[in-house]
Specification:
Blueprint lengths: L11 E4 L33 H15 L6 E5 L16
Parallel strand pairs: 1-2
């Protein structure tokens, strides 16, 4: 894939829509087991899904660091928020 700046000035924003292990269990994150988000779960393969994700983002950053049309990339789209770590005000 080559990103070259166009005469219209259009840029490219890369979006990690499906992280290894599925970050939310929904169909938009390509879960191996529908409804299950394994990204932060126990019993992960080696390297873990978060480690695989970090390595992939690092590879993207290195590969496209000097691509003129690349304006950035999202780290993860639609992550699942764990109920135990979320807070609600009342």
């Amino acid at each position: 894939m080559t990103f070259q700046r166009t005469c219209a000035g259009i840029g490219v924003l890369l979006d990690m829509h499906a992280a290894p292990g599925s970050q939310n269990g929904m169909d938009n994150s390509a879960p191996a087991q529908p409804g299950k988000a394994l990204w932060g779960a126990a019993g992960q393969p080696t390297p873990s899904y978060p480690d695989q994700t970090v390595a992939f983002v690092g590879a993207l950053a290195a590969r496209y660091a000097n691509a003129p049309a690349l304006i950035g990339f999202t780290l993860m789209s639609s992550p699942q928020v764990c109920a135990a770590s979320s807070t609600a005000s009342g």
